[in-house]
Structures are given as C-alpha cells and as structure tokens.
Amino acid sequence: MDITMRAQNGVTIVALGGSLDSNTSPKAQQEMDGILAGGAKKVAVDCTTLDYISSAGLRVMLGAAKKLNGGAGLRLFGLNQSVREVFDISGFSKILAVFNSEADALRGF
Amino acid sequence: MHPPAKTRKGCHIVAAMPSLRMTIGPDPGQVAGVSQAFADFAQAHKVPPAVRRSVSIALDELLNNATAYGFPGRGGDVSVEVDLAPDRLSVTLSDSGKPFNPLEMAEPDTALSVDERQIGGLGIHLVRRMMDDVAYHRRDERNVITLTKRLA
Q1: What is the tens place of the pLDDT at every residue in B16-74?
Q2: Does residue A66 lie within any of the structural domains?
Q3: Distance of CA B42 to the CA centre of its chain
Q4: Model's pTM, two decimal places?
Q5: For the structural domain made of B14-150, what CATH number should be given?
Q6: Would you call A62 and B114 a contact, using CB atoms and an 8 Å cutoff?
Q7: Chain B positions with Cβ closer than 8 Å to A
Q8: What is the CATH number of the domain that holds A63?
Q9: What was the ipTM of the complex prediction?
C-alpha cells in the first residue's frame, strides 16, 4: 500500500496505491486519522492506482466519511472496475460521493 | 473438469493444473503472506485481473475472519488450496477453529446512511456476491469453505 498526500485549494488529496485490505488498512487508517486530526475538512481520495479494496478498507472509508460532515467532506475518484464493484455491492456507491476524474471530484468541492 | 486427453496408445495424460498450497497459524498477521503468494501465483499463471482481485478480496475476508475469531485462546491451523483449471479458479479453505458457517450470517442492510452504516457482515456479503459458488461444510472437526470463480 502506497499512500501519498497533497493539498490543493483547501482540499487534501490522498492517493492510495496497491491493495487496501486487512493487512494494509491499519496504515491507511493511521494516515487518515492524521489528516483529520490536522483539521482537514475536505478530503478527496485518489483511487487511480488502487488495485482492490476489501471490507477492512471500506471500514477506513466509512470512518473517514463519518468524521467529515456525514460524508459531505469526502469525495473519491478514479475507481477501477473491481473497486467500483465492491462499492456497488456494499451500497457505498449510494452513500459516498464517487466521481470519474480528479477534475470532476474537485469541481465545486 | 476436462476429461483427460487420450494418447494413441490409450494412456491417459492429465496435464498438471497449477496449484498453490499454504498453511498458516491462527494469526491475522499471517494472512498477508497468503495474499502475496496468491498475487504471485496469479501473475505467474496469467489469471485475469478481475478474477485475481475478486479472489484476493475473498481470501482476505475469509482468512481474516477465521484467524481473528476462530481460535479464542488456542492454537490450530488454516490451510489454503488454490487450483487453476482452464475455465475456473477453485479455492478450498480449511481451518481447525470453532464451528462457524459464514453462509448463515444475516445479510447486512446496504441501504443505510453514512451515520447508520456498520461494517459487520459486509465481508461475507462481498464474498457471496463476487464468487460464482460458495459452499461450507463441517468435516472432520474442521470448517471447510470452497469457492469457485469462473475465468470468463
């Protein structure tokens, strides 16, 4: 799991690379907690190089959404077909804001 | 399963199917080793990415469940068998933990809001939806789960 962060116009963009599963989710959780503790109110998760996500990874996303204004402060983009399928099956596609591209995700955020 | 090919002499030739065999202890920290071994296996045998990802997720969910909850205060083992046939990938997970049939778990409510949502039960739900077949047997004091994912 590779995690990189950058800030752009008040939005913290977090890029996740590799797999987000029971092995790697503690690290992602730690990074996300750090971002939120730092006062971030708007977080965009870049999933372009995210290979797959299991329920342990969904837990990290849900936890972040709950702390970001009921999900209003969290956006995701660049999901591959597998990640999209997991989001659809779990119902996360309906409760989290998912966009196709970074430009779409940042527009009006 | 394809019938074995016959040679001119009437002998049967059974092509060896690629397979992966591993056994781990009752420790969630050992699941990562299986994930890596399966990723290597999938790459070596050109398993389609969509199949590799779905099976990786299923392995993570089921092995994490088995190792985290199946062995309260005792030892044991969890074995993993992966077999790649021309048309399907089959996985058999067997553990000596306490009896647990994941297929008896209630389906989670996936229509709740962000504030109401919980993660419990979601892993098994993903496995059932992403695999083509999931079966559970209690056999010889072991939990045995078989998964099948078609390649096309």
Answers
A1: 899 999 999 999 999 999 999 999 999 999 999 999 999 999 999 999 999 999 999 89
A2: yes
A3: 14
A4: 0.92
A5: 3.30.565.10
A6: yes
A7: 28, 31-32, 35, 49-50, 53-54, 56-57, 60-61, 64, 110-115, 117, 119, 122-123, 125-126, 129-130
A8: 3.30.750.24
A9: 0.95
